Amino acid sequence: MIRFPWPALARTAVLAVSVLVLGACRPATDQALGTLEYDRITLPAPAAERIASIEVREGERVGAGQRLLVLERTRGDAQLAAAEAEVARQRQALEELRNGARREDIAQARANLAAAQAQARDARAYFERVQPLGARQLVSAAEVDRARAAAGNAEAQVAAARAALQELENGVRPEQVAQAEAALAAAEAQLRGQAETTGRLDVVAPRAGRVDSLPYRAGDEAPVGAPLAVLLVGERPYARIYVPEPLRPRVQVGQAVRVHVGADGQRSYPGRVRMVRSEPAFTPYYALTGKDAARLSYLAEVELEGEGAGVLPAGLPLRVEFGDAR
């Protein structure tokens, strides 16, 4: 009868079982963990206006162009009307310059010139009369000086009236027309901007999607730029994962993967890596060299493929396997 060394055999059996157990605990494929996400669109407040009404609920699906919220329009409509009035004023001012002076204005300028010429003739005649008398000292020198000054002033009035008439007859300068055109263009630009701002008081969905969040309620007055609504858009979600440093060299854009959604991982979908960040998402100060470098993690995104992925909600936990994705 053959006797076996039972203590040695027992130790061998225990070692074999331990190896099998450790092998079963080791993951069969490389994997990374993350969550299910959709692309998010944030709709900011175009103006600091009170929310008049909210047309949708959180979680509701909306179509492109569907109205989500309505802001008070009283102040916006008044500003829009003021901008329209300014455009009309600038347009009429430009037309006035282009049309030139009216015939009545030119006739008035000619009459003013004629009156100035008559006054100049009378002042010149009076000066010619008193000048010889002053030479014979029959009138004072001061009277002669006043007559000379009055004649000179009358001549200057004639020159001013003639220049005013010529200005009306020649029309406005091209530079004035250009300035009026620029002022009109500026007013029209302000009108377009105000019309855009007023039009955005009706907050609409830029794309089809699902309402994820409505931070404010009817009656609130959100500051300019505050998020009024957050939409989840896209036909299907994507997996946002964090790739550990030891796995990073083997993860490439376009690589086929298998995505297991949920804590139990029962739902499985094929996917493809669409983005991997070049910089680590988590970089502890001690995790730069040596063994600590394995603590680095790189953000990546995996696009889900296959049917049924479009109905999955955001935020579900998942794991991505970088092995065979068939």
TrEMBL record:
Q: Any signal peptide, and if so, which residues?
A: 1-23
SUPFAM superfamilies in the record:
HlyD-like secretion proteins
UniProt GO cellular component terms: cell envelope
Q: Which Pfam families match?
A: HH_YBHG
Coiled-coil stretches are 80-197
The listed locations are: Cell envelope
Looking at the record, the residues that make up the YbhG-like alpha-helical hairpin domain are 77-196
Keywords noted in UniProt: Coiled coil, Signal
Return the PANTHER family for the record. Answer: EFFLUX SYSTEM COMPONENT YKNX-RELATED, UPF0194 MEMBRANE PROTEIN YBHG
The name on file for this protein is: HlyD family secretion protein
Biological source species: Pseudoxanthomonas taiwanensis J19
